[in-house]
Amino acid sequence: MTLYPLAGPIVVTGRTESGDVTTLDDDLVxxxxxxxxxxxxxxxxxxxxxxASNEAAAKELLAYAAxxxxxxxx
Length: 74
Known about the structure:
Layout: E1 14-15, E2 21-22, H1 26-48, H2 54-69
Antiparallel strand pairs: 1-2
């Protein structure tokens, strides 16, 4: 199932106020890494249990991404 036809290395960058490309701060790097790991793990799980539809797949991944980037309770 292809949600977004991306394959291979992906580069995630930030933007300055003037629109230039810049590095991400440490929190955003951690969020991007967490979401990437979750997507990889979820895609592996879908081999055995595919989602009912592309819409269901997108909703599932977005819910996981939201969980991954939510502030942690201390």
